[in-house]
Amino acid sequence: MADAGLTANQLTGARWAYAFALVTSLFFTWGFAYGLLDVLNSHFQTVFGITKLQSTLLQLAYFGAYFVWAPFAGVVMTKYGYKKGIHFGLTLYSLGAIFFWPSARFEKYGGFIGCTFVIGCGLSTLEVAANSYIAVLGSEKYAAARLNFSQGFQGVASFAGPMIASRWFFTGKNATSLDTVQWVYLAVAGLGLVLNILFYFCDLPEIGQDALAEEMHAVGLKSDDEPFWKQYRCIFGWVAQTTYVGAQVGVAAFTVNYIVDQNIGIAKPEASQLFSYCQITFTVGRFIGVVLLNWIDPALLLTIYGICCSTFSMAVSFAAGRSGIGCLFALFFFESICYPVIFTLGTKQLGKHTKRGSGLIVMGVGGGAWYPPAQGAIADRNTRLSYVVPFTGYVVMTLYAVGIVISQTSRNGFRFRTVDEIQERRHEIEEQQPSTPISDHEEPSVDEKKIDVEYIDRA
């Protein structure tokens, strides 16, 4: 077992910063792959002559891999530790990307689907490792803010993907061919290889879930004494993550189609460019969320953002023209903090169940496999109306956040500011320990009398 490990409090500042920066670099890898996926969804409709519904097989493969593989990734992380888990994930990621080459060369849509599944397995392993590692790499008070910051770089890569696609996939002869797809994914495989080499030579401290459990137990928090199936906050977090990711993926998968179908004179290349601007809005929202989460309770902020997501998804469904596109931008902004906040709320104070719980929450990414086909079936008839489907996912996420706010309020009163419960408990224990100074007139104890007698005898 590789789980003895440390807690973040035992790391020096330099070692903490190094570990944080290196693991954060992983978020760029799957952000780039995810950004390309949404554009390929639209591009393959043209190249292979398939329907919008058929094109969502890419999403089914990518996110279905999370649903199938993430629980096993949690087991791998528990048995072998974060570092070996990261190596395993990067290897799968690079292998999947390499096989995009023959799939593009021989123009086999089935090959793309298979390669996408392998990439999804690799990325689900990396997500279990990186999300969990960043969440526990410091005070729980700032866990949501830390994870939002790291995932902000995923957002940077997400809009880089569509920008590359708008320049190379949809212009000239590339609009109807797969030539440049080969080179892009060869570069993606190379990036995975370079990261794998860097992690091999790095000293990545293992943050152990047993050490985390001891830190909790020391202040009387023993929620992890219950079996894993009774960790309801985590289990309902998986439900919320499943519906939210399904909604987010559905929104992104049909953004290009939605913009083109608004019939305001925007063609696919320009629509792809606007999609990259939507991703920029998402990324900016995530970094703004970092600031907000340093002050505002994560469950409360998720409630507010969830209500906004629900509202704007309905507005996108029924607004026409440029107003609909404006609502789409607002929807991307309010999606920004949702995934990392759900993850940190769902894995909070899991103690010895931390890695298993992380695998379950990441398994929720599998929701991205189910929502796009449902939305695609409607989008083949009316793209705008199909955005009613994501609305259902945002509602479930919002109910999860509201439930946590109510639970916190019932225990400790309404909470606006974010707090570190472990640190608060530690201070309470210190304050409750009475200081017992000995009075000048206090009778000496029996042991003290014996010491005095022994001293006189020796004298």
TrEMBL record:
Keyword Transmembrane attributed: yes
Classification via Pfam families: MFS_1 (PF07690)
Spans annotated as Disordered: 427-459
Entry superkingdom: Eukaryota
GO molecular-function terms, A-Z: transmembrane transporter activity
Membrane topology: Multi-pass membrane protein
Subcellular location field: Cell inner membrane
UniProtKB keywords: Cell membrane, Membrane, Transmembrane, Transmembrane helix
Ranges annotated as biased composition (Basic and acidic residues): 439-459
Chain ranges passing through the membrane: 16-37, 57-78, 85-103, 109-130, 151-170, 182-202, 327-346, 387-407
Family annotation (Gene3D superfamilies): MFS general substrate transporter like domains (1.20.1250.20)
GO CC, alphabetical: plasma membrane
Main location (coarse class): membrane
Protein name: Major facilitator superfamily (MFS) profile domain-containing protein
Protein source organism: Phlebiopsis gigantea (strain 11061_1 CR5-6)
